[in-house]
Amino acid sequence: MSREQFDLLDGLELTKSEYEWLERRFENMTEAEKLKFAGAMDILHPQDAAAVIQAASQLERFSLLLGAGNDAALGKYVLDNFHAAPRGSLPYLDVEKAGRMYREEYRCSFQDGHCVQLYGALDHHAETPLPYLPTAGDYAIRVKLASRANTEGVWVGFPDCGESLAAAVPDELALALEALQVKSAGECIALDVDCCFPQLTGILAQYDSAAKLVRHAVDLGYIWAEQGQGQPYFLEKWQTVMELEDCTRLDYALDLAQNLSCYEFIPRSVDLGTFGREKAVSDGVLRKSDRFLTDCFDGAAYVGEYARRWGMSATEHGYAAWNGTPLAYAYSQPPQEQMMM
After folding, report:
1. DSSP string of 27-39, one letter each residue
2. How far apart are the first and last CA of the chain?
3. Cα 53 to Cα 134: distance, rounded to the nearest angstrom
4. Domain check: are 261 and 326 in the same one?
5. Is pLDDT of 277 > 80?
6. Farthest-apart Cα atoms in the chain, separation
7. pLDDT, the chain, mean
8. What is the C-alpha separation between 119 and 117, in angstroms, rounded?
9. Residue 128 domain-assigned?
10. Minimum mean pLDDT among 58-62, 152-156, 169-173: which range?
């Protein structure tokens, strides 16, 4: 139901295209996004439809502090998660005052037993024409779950935490289960799946259990957010390997993410000369400190020989080849020929 979101816009004039975009955006919102949107309207007080659309398309800039729905609860949340208070000081700390001080210093809004906070500011320069503006949030994967108590269903997105909150992570799944009036995903059925990787098709039909689908979606979201603990070109390599292996299954994609070291790779998005020099340094062919040799080095030729040596195949996101290292399977079944070896 998107009526409750439209009620927050009472008094604002909307064109037909603005109304239709917002209607699609509201229908695609997860439970966490609904809270963030209500908080955004309270924090920003938008005066026109353009400002509403800007907020609705940048909800990732808002954080959700779960359960911090009043000054006392917010103060406890802040002291537990953001401030390492010395143990001896705890009996003397006024949690309600801490919450009030935090709320007054930062842009916060209490919504339905939780706290919504805007980090920084919205990007006023990222204007995209309405027909091309995404109507779903920035998630690796979203699953629409339904229950006996809520047959219409709700969306839950993964990863379910913002990068700015490492220790205090808003739990999208907990909010979804609350809206569905169930205790676990095992009591639900999955109605739909939306994934950022277009090669993963028919995901819903790959699972006979909503609980298992959600477990795999949680892991996909975690891997997508972590990106190999900051490994360069991680997402590009993952997508390239998925294309190389003709991967269409979610469980297989998770296994490939754990086995990227089994593949040699060149990204499409880089300058080959620069990439070749970086690779030569990592291979021990060059010393990074020797600027004279590095500047004279033909990185493009080096990376070209690397590609020929491994017989790399071209894909949309890069070039890759299996390097012969056996793959480990934790999520999917290995190919039949490997099981017979």
Report:
1. HT-BHHHHHHHHH
2. 53
3. 11
4. yes
5. yes
6. 70
7. 89
8. 6
9. no
10. 169-173
Q: What is the pTM of this model?
A: 0.85
Task: Count how many Cα atoms sit within 13 Å of the Cα of residue 209 in the half-sphere of its side chain.
Answer: 7
My answer on whether 11 and 116 are in the same domain is yes
| Structure-token pair, residue 272 | 């080959």
List the one residue out of 252, 145, 242 whose CA is nearest residue 193: 145
Tokens 């503006």 — which residue? 133
Is residue 323 assigned to a domain? yes
Q: What is the pLDDT of residue 122?
A: 84
Tell me the residue range of the domain where 55 lies.
Answer: 1-122
Q: How many angstroms separate the CA atoms of 20 and 12, rounded?
A: 15
- Residue 127 in any domain: the answer is no
Report pLDDT digits (tens) over 297-333: 888 999 999 999 999 999 999 999 999 999 999 999 9
| Whether residue 116 is found in the same domain as residue 2 | yes
Tell me the C-alpha to C-alpha distance, in Å, between residue 257 and each of 55, 224, 250.
33, 9, 11
- Tally of structural domains, the chain: 3
Statement to judge: residues 112 and 221 lie in one domain: no
Same domain, 80 and 177: no
pLDDT in tens, 89-118: 878 899 999 999 999 999 999 999 999 999
Reduced to 3 states, what is the DSSP secondary structure of residue 316?
coil
Name the residue among 220, 281, 231, 218 with its Cα closest to residue 260.
Answer: 231
Tell me, what's the pLDDT at 323? 97
